[in-house]
Amino acid sequence: MLLREKHCVPCQEGTPPLDEATTRLLLGEVRGWSVDAGAGKAARITKHYEFGDFLAAMAFVDKLAALAQSEGHHPDFCVHYSQVDVTLWTHVARGLTENDFILASKLDALLP
To answer: How many CB atoms lie within 10 A of CB 20?
Structure first.
């Protein structure tokens, strides 16, 4: 089953983060996302989106917000006029879970 066909599942305290091999495997299923695993912080995946103007970027953010709410999994994001940076990680797992890759896949599917 494709990631975008799955749904995020609630994580409980104690949910373990993905191991490096599984992270690499899932990363191969989402285009343009990269792992950020800086010293002393939990692993995250990030992507930079570019749009024609501010309104197009905000239209994407509106869709992002609705999708995140429906999946119960909420990314961090930052808007820079016509650009949107998105960061995903699972706080309760203190790292990455399949939910992060599911949401990443669904975010990418929002674009033509």
So the answer is: 12
Report pLDDT digits (tens) over 77-107.
999 999 999 999 999 999 999 999 999 999 9
- The pTM is what? 0.94
Q: HEC string of the chain?
A: CCHHHCCCCCCCCCCCCCCHHHHHHHHCCCCCCEEECCCCCCCEEEEEEECCCHHHHHHHHHHHHHHHHHHCCCCEEEEECCEEEEEECEHHHCECCHHHHHHHHHHHHCCC
Class of domain 39-112: alpha beta
For 25, half-sphere exposure in the C-beta direction (CA atoms, 13 angstrom radius) is 9
**For the residues 63-71, what does the mean pLDDT come to?**
98
From the list 13, 15, 33, 14, the residue with the least C-alpha distance to 23 is 33
Q: Are 5 and 78 in contact (CB under 8 A)?
A: no
